[in-house]
Amino acid sequence: SASASASASIIGVGSKAGEMTQVSVTTEDRVVGAKEMPKGLVDVNAQQIDLRKTNSWLLKIDQVETAEIAEVFAINTLAPFILNSKLLPLIKKSGSSPSQLRFIVNVSAMEGKFYRHKMPTHPHTNMAKAALNMMTRTCSADLYARHKILMNSVDTGWINDENPLQKAARIAESSGFQTPIDEIDAAARVLDPVFASLQPKPPTRPMMGKFYKDYHETEW
User: What Pfam families is this protein classified in (predicted)?
Assistant: First the structure.
């Protein structure tokens, strides 16, 4: 019906991820969206271009809009939780026998570490990744004991400059700076707990309930 089509258009049904991030939810979204996040402009990863001079990475607690922190938690915490919980029945059925290893890798970041110096900026992204890590710490031992599922958190490594686009471009132009690794390196780190556990001579202790950075266990 016309009303159903209109409703779908409003909430972004059928839209790409980059477009859905621009759906206006609050008054602040409508003010910022048109000018600093132009519709149709995406980066190499098909994500919405952010032209704000002070982006999410630089915001302090009193500068983060409610919609923004909700989106950050939806992507980094709620979505992994829902996927893990709802796909668990399928994961349990996978493999040729109940004793076969199964894997869940929660893609985390250094922002989620407690044992690391913190700046006063981007508390919302720090909180979201810390919450993701807590899921790993809470669920991993039980999942392994019941279903031979190895759950870990993994840091992707530094693959993008978090500075605002204009500042990042100036730095790259003046110094030739680029992050030390790319998305392929990040994917290798994420998959390493899987590959390492499937080697002919796997680790003596199951690789589960850990936080990994650069292929090695790191503190929480």
Answer: adh_short_C2
